[in-house]
Amino acid sequence: QQRILSLYGAYRLTDRLRAELVLGYSNLAFDHVRLGSDNTSVLDGQRTGSALFADLSLRGRWTSDTCVFRPYLGAQFTQALLDAYAETGNSAQTLAYDRTTADQGSLSAGVDITFSQFASAGFRPSLSLGYERAVGSHFSESYGFTTGGGTSQLSLSSTPTDLAHLGLRGQWTLSESSLLDFNYTFYSGSQNYRNHQLSLGYALKL
Q1: What is the pLDDT of residue 193?
Q2: In angstroms, rounded to a whole number, what is the distance separating the alpha carbons of residues 155 and 102?
Q3: Radius of gyration of the chain (CA)
Q4: 59 vs 143, residue with greater confidence
Q5: Inter-CA distances, 165 with 69, 109, 114, Å
Q6: Which CATH number applies to 2-204: 3.40.50.1820, 3.90.930.1, 2.40.128.130, 2.40.128.90?
Q7: The Cα angle at residue 100 between residues 98 and 106, in degrees rounded to 5
Q8: Burial class (CB in 10 A: 0-12, 13-18, 19+), 6
Q9: pLDDT greater than 80 at residue 2
Q10: Composition of the chain by helix, strand, coil, percent to 5
Q11: pLDDT tens figures, 145-174
């Protein structure tokens, strides 16, 4: 369960450059159910918390006879606060988790290029290039059995920390009421991260 409140603002710095800011707050609630190590005990609980997020970006727009360039710079930050909670069920297997904070931040830069010279033929190709770096991202949590016996530590960090992407997109206007859309994006990052995303869509106006 999640409820979100957000505020958006934009300011035009010049005719070709604008700044955008998004600030938000969200309350969180998770239902957690798992099977115990004996494969018969059902252990459950509910965890609550909240999250703050901010997104600041600078976006430009430059046009030429053949292309429209849209460069951008961005900074994003999210902080999630998770309350302490304990599972219910078989007391020999239930776990208790301490209150914890999860931080995630990133810096990004890139450009979207639309080739407008093909518009008269009903074809609109575009290209996107971008880079993102995770900064200040960390999650650490202590947990242990509710009956005692010491605690364990779980720590996570963003993977990959550096991520670049190349995107290719094509839109074909088939008629006044129909559109075909093709989109392919390749991601490459640190820790040998690779990802391919491919989509094909068809839109029809009724």
Answers
A1: 94
A2: 10
A3: 23
A4: 59
A5: 17, 11, 16
A6: 2.40.128.130
A7: 160
A8: exposed
A9: no
A10: 5, 75, 20
A11: 888 777 888 887 777 899 999 999 999 988
Residues 6+ apart with CB under 8 A from 116: 63, 66, 67, 68, 124
Residues 143 and 34: their CA atoms lie apart, in Å, by: 16
Domains in the chain: boundaries? 2-204
Alpha carbons 110 and 69: distance in angstroms, whole number: 10
Pairwise CA distance, residues 31 & 42, whole Å: 13
Report the range of poorest mean pLDDT among 10-19, 41-50, 69-78, 187-196: 41-50
Length of the chain in terms of residues written: 206
Give residue-wise pLDDT tens across range 22-46.
Answer: 999 999 998 888 888 888 889 898 8
Helix (H) or strand (E) holding 145, with range, is strand 138-145
The whole-angstrom separation of Cα 111 and Cα 106 is 17
Token pair, residue 67, equals 């292309």
